[in-house]
Amino acid sequence: MKMENDARLAPEAAPPRKPRWARAALAAGTIVMAGAGLLASTELHGIPASHALPQGVPLRSIAQTIRLADDLPGAHALPAFPASASNLPPGSPLIGAFKGSPESRLIAIYRAIGAQQTDVAIDAAAALTHDVPGFRLAQLVYADLLSARMGNSPRFDTTAAAFSGAGRHPADPAVDAELGELRDEAVARLRALQERPPADAVPAEFVVLPKAVHHAIAVDTSRSRLYLFENGVHGLRLVSDHYVSMGKNGVDKSVEGDQRTPLGVYFVSDRAGPESLEQRFGAGAMQLNYPNAFDKLQGRTGSGIYLHGVPFDTYSRPPKDSDGCVVLANDELVMLMNTVPLHDTPVIISRRIDWVGGAATPAHHAEILDAVNHWQSVRAADDRQALAAFYEPGAAPPVPVSPPSAPPLPPATILVHGKRRPAPAPAAPPHDKIGFNELSVLTWSGEKETMVVTFHERMARSSRETVLRQYWERDARQWKIVAEGTVR
């Protein structure tokens, strides 16, 4: 299996070792200072950074400024998990600090800080770092909390200068880089918590999904976040969201080896378990159909773009740390692999998701569906001239519904009352009726607005069914098909 995204990563280290930042900080006796990146990242949306406060201000003062979007009036809360913490009342939103997924526990630790429950936060952080020692960001949270308990008010800074004083480790570019990556991860996670999607909102990119498509995935690269939707009787519903890592050089992949994550509309095409992968890919991988027909038309190269896990000795990776893939924690990757089917599950990767209310359909959705319905009606009528008008030059329309006429045969004759007379012309074969179902329409905005249309086409007389996929572009207020092909 070829995987472009991480094929050039260094081999796994033989025995697991502490990260460089932890080894350097411990050697200098300043592991508490190594945790400075977390609360510095709260300088978002009006939440002040701790280093802006006077020296010696206790943690409980800054805790009042840490508010998650889910805690605000009118916001839907994240699910709580049961816990055995005896010092918390039943139903407390902080009980998730002790049980649940590692990220849900980290969320609950943030909640405990915001609720001024510093003892709960410290105990929960200690338990989390014990249970998931590879969760480097949790280690930093724990270090920050211990520092606050000791009465320290360190400079919440991840530059080497913050560690260059007496009793601190000397400037080390490698350590500085790792601390910067962890700060970036903290910023990404906090943004996702502070900017929850509106209740009942869905990405505007999902125009139509058939009932046969049970799940859909959207990746917001600006937030390092993957959103999983369930497609039920009442439409799309957000069921979970997850922190993800992406390409080292960002997004908008164009050539092989550019270490960027592609942007566009893709589908899960294959999967692999850990038994067929190198250890650095973690618990598994789900392949995307990059490059698709539209990518090839744009001259994009490369292959092996996956959703996959992380090495088993770590929990997560920095926001920009792959050669192009979307990388999740192993437990979350396994959940996705056990949930979404192959082939029909769409994965939209965008710079930023455009959220719209469930009942509010963008006005241009009607225009998009009108274009698709018009194409289908012309296709069903087998009007070749009208059908060709939907296609850009070089994008050939599909084969005719009716078979092409055979060359004319010499006129046949029959014997009538002893005389030869012309035979009646054979009846023309009836027009094969055509039907469409399982329509899927997804949009994407790059240089131009693009839509990806997938549907089943069925011939009534022959009972032949084909799954077709079209890529449309909008130019000068008109939709044109630029690429088309059979899926299966």
What does this entry look like structurally?
This protein is an alpha+beta fold and 488 residues long. Helices cover 25% and strands 23% of the residues. The chain has 12 helices and 19 strands. It has helices spanning 20-28, 31-34, 37-40, 59-63, 102-114, 118-131, 136-149, 173-194, 293-297, 330-339, 363-381, 384-388; strands at residues 201-203, 206-208, 215-220, 225-232, 235-243, 246-247, 264-272, 285-288, 306-308, 320-322, 326-327, 346-350, 355-357, 413-416, 419-422, 434-445, 449-459, 465-475, 478-486. Strands 5-4-3-12-7-8-9-11 form an 8-stranded mixed beta sheet, with helices on both faces. A 5-stranded antiparallel beta sheet has the order 2-16-17-18-19. A hairpin with a 4-residue loop joins β3 (215-220) and β4. α5 (102-114) packs antiparallel against α6 (118-131) and α6 (118-131) runs antiparallel to α7. The chain is elongated, with a radius of gyration of 29 Å. The two termini are 22 Å apart.
Key features?
8-stranded mixed β-sheet; elongated; single chain; alpha+beta; 19 strands; 488 residues; 5-stranded antiparallel β-sheet
List the helices and strands and how they pair.
Layout: H1 20-28, H2 31-34, H3 37-40, H4 59-63, H5 102-114, H6 118-131, H7 136-149, H8 173-194, E1 201-203, E2 206-208, E3 215-220, E4 225-232, E5 235-243, E6 246-247, E7 264-272, E8 285-288, H9 293-297, E9 306-308, E10 320-322, E11 326-327, H10 330-339, E12 346-350, E13 355-357, H11 363-381, H12 384-388, E14 413-416, E15 419-422, E16 434-445, E17 449-459, E18 465-475, E19 478-486
Parallel strand pairs: 3-12, 6-10, 9-11
Antiparallel strand pairs: 1-13, 2-16, 3-4, 4-5, 7-8, 7-12, 8-9, 14-15, 16-17, 17-18, 18-19
